[in-house]
Design a protein that fits this description.
With 181 residues, the chain is mainly α. The protein is elongated. It is built from seven helices and no strands.
Length: 181
């Protein structure tokens, strides 16, 4: 009998796939790898979609994606890694929500899929083919799941809420006043 089963293998595949994609996304933001804009270019983009200050927003998103993705792939600190990645994807989904659901029309489908996968892994755990398991789950305790999601939800709500207010104010500032006689 082996020390792992097909559930562990399935979790490993999910962690490697979602974690790898998230890490690559973060590397685009942080380092400009894989055709990304790096901190400068991503910072300008973040400003253009309402996340300010841009460089700090790019850094935070890049760290959550690259760090969370790498940790998910390794199966290390899985609750914190999954929550951080899910929070970053919630921020991305907020940008794409006005375009509807499907990615082909610029919607939030892709961000939602990555975010939900990261959240699911945080809740389920990494399985036995992981560093968390090898280290005796020192940074993967049951209490860490709600704590990680509470902290991430609070930070995400503040950041996305500030962005929403900024975007709303910009739209209101663009509208010409209507004068009635």
């Amino acid at each position: 009998m082996t020390s792992f089963d097909r559930r562990d293998l399935g979790l490993l595949l999910l962690r490697l796939g979602a974690g790898g994609v998230l890490a690559a996304h973060g590397a685009q933001k942080l380092f400009g790898w894989f055709g990304g804009g790096g901190i400068e270019g991503t910072g300008r983009f973040m400003e253009s979609v309402g996340y300010a200050p841009g460089k700090e927003s790019a850094t935070a998103a890049g760290l959550a994606e690259a760090g969370g993705g790498t940790l998910l792939a390794l199966g290390l600190a899985t609750p914190a890694a999954g929550a951080a990645a899910a929070g970053a994807m919630a921020g991305a989904a907020a940008v794409h929500t006005p375009n509807g659901f499907f990615n082909q029309s610029g919607g939030y489908e892709y961000a939602a899929t990555l975010g939900l996968t990261a959240a699911g892994l945080a809740v389920t755990g990494p399985g036995r083919l992981s560093l968390d398991h090898a280290l005796g789950h020192a940074v993967n305790r049951g209490w860490m799941v709600p704590a990680a999601f509470a902290a991430t939800a609070a930070a995400t709500a503040l950041v996305v809420g500030a962005r929403t207010r900024r975007v709303r104010q910009e739209k209101e500032g663009e509208q010409e006043p209507v004068f009635e006689d």
